[in-house]
Design brief:
The chain is an alpha/beta fold. It has two domains: 32-112, NAD(P)-binding Rossmann-like Domain (Rossmann fold, 3-Layer(aba) Sandwich); 116-232, Hexapeptide repeat proteins (UDP N-Acetylglucosamine Acyltransferase, domain 1, 3 Solenoid). Helix content is 13%, strand content 29%. It has three helices and 25 strands. The chain has helices spanning 23-30, 41-52, 96-106, and strands at 34-37, 57-62, 72-73, 76-80, 88-92, 110-112, 115-116, 121-122, 127-128, 133-134, 139-140, 145-146, 151-152, 157-158, 163-164, 169-170, 175-176, 181-182, 187-188, 193-194, 199-200, 205-206, 211-212, 220-223, 228-232. The strands form four sheets. An eight-stranded mixed β-sheet has the order 7-10-13-16-19-22-24-25, with no helix packed on it. Strand 5 (88-92), helix 3 and strand 6 form a beta-alpha-beta unit. The longest helix is centred in the N-terminal third of the chain and has 12 residues, at 41-52. It is globular. It starts with 22 loop residues before the first helix and ends in a 5-residue tail after the last strand. Bound molecules: coenzyme A. Coenzyme A is lined by residues 153, 171-172, 189-190, 205, 207-209, 221, 223-224, 230-231.
Length: 237
């Protein structure tokens, strides 16, 4: 799962069966397995990615709706955040704003690992930050730095010598050229194209299908071909 030596620890473990009965006993058994922060559809997608990669998921973690704890998703238990074990190996499967809140909440207890689907390619010289997730069919060229807690969705392509700021989300099929700098918590919509040597600000949104040919400021939404600013004052969603 980690053919390139530059990746942080990957959460790969042989599949095995897991019976959830008594919390205290089972938490010990869970510690070498993956915990997914979040219980929504993105969490289910990450569960599928992990399972397909042969990584055993121990549990989902909920921090908003107490009623969900004690129930199950994808045949795994949902634990309340306070019951998550110390040093649990985690990924976070939530949208940008809820992602950063949840990560702050558990940062003293969680060990954030990378989930990289084996169908993706990360060329030598590129690095992944803590908790970064690379979905299926992604291509990352060489010497690219992907920040902490970035989510790169299916079939996105990242060029060489590109930097992706922490908490950014790169949606399916986005095509980001080389020598690009993308700011923190920015969302790059599906199917968008960003030509080389541009700076994309922080907390901005590149709309689906946009063709970006010039720098994008912080906190704006751009759309169209060529992309133009459609909205200002954008905050992460
Ligand atoms: C950009 C986006 C987030 C919408 O943002 P919003 O702030 O709600 O924008 P609005 O819908 O209010 O639209 C504002 C303007 O942008 C335009 N616009 C929005 N999305 C657009 C797009 N993808 N392409 C072209 N124009 C777009 C609207 O037509 C509107 O134009 P107008 O002011 O001239 O009428 C959404 O359209 C989008 O592209 N999301 C990304 C989806 C994605 O990647 N999903 C992945 C799922 S896995």
């Amino acid at each position: 799962m980690t053919p390139d030596g530059n990746r942080r620890e990957a959460a790969g473990h042989p599949a095995c069966s897991f019976q959830f009965s008594d919390l205290a006993t089972d938490i010990i058994k869970m510690l070498d397995k993956l915990f997914i922060l979040g219980t929504g559809v993105l969490a289910e997608e990450c569960f599928a990615l992990a399972s397909h990669a042969g990584i055993h998921v121990a549990a989902f973690i909920e921090n908003m709706d107490r009623a969900k704890s004690g129930t199950r998703r994808c045949d795994r238990p949902i634990l309340w955040v306070d019951d998550m074990p110390q040093r649990a190996k985690c990924i976070c499967a939530l949208s940008t704003s809820t992602r950063s809140r949840f990560i702050d909440q558990v940062s003293d207890r969680a060990e954030f690992v990378n989930l990289v689907h084996p169908s993706s390619i990360v060329l030598p010289g590129s690095t992944l930050g803590r908790g970064a997730i690379i979905s299926a069919g992604v291509i990352v060229a060489s010497n690219t730095a992907i920040g902490d807690f970035v989510f790169v969705n299916r079939a996105a392509r990242l060029g060489h010598h590109t930097q992706i700021g922490k908490f950014a989300t790169i949606q399916p099929g986005a095509n980001i050229a080389g020598l690009i700098n993308i700011g923190e918590s920015t969302l790059v919509g599906m199917g968008s194209i960003i030509i080389e040597r541009l700076t994309i600000g922080r907390e901005s949104i590149i709309a689906a299908g946009a063709v970006v040919i010039c720098d994008v400021p912080d906190n704006v939404m751009v759309a169209g071909n060529p992309a133009v600013v459609k909205k200002t004052g954008i905050v992460p969603r």
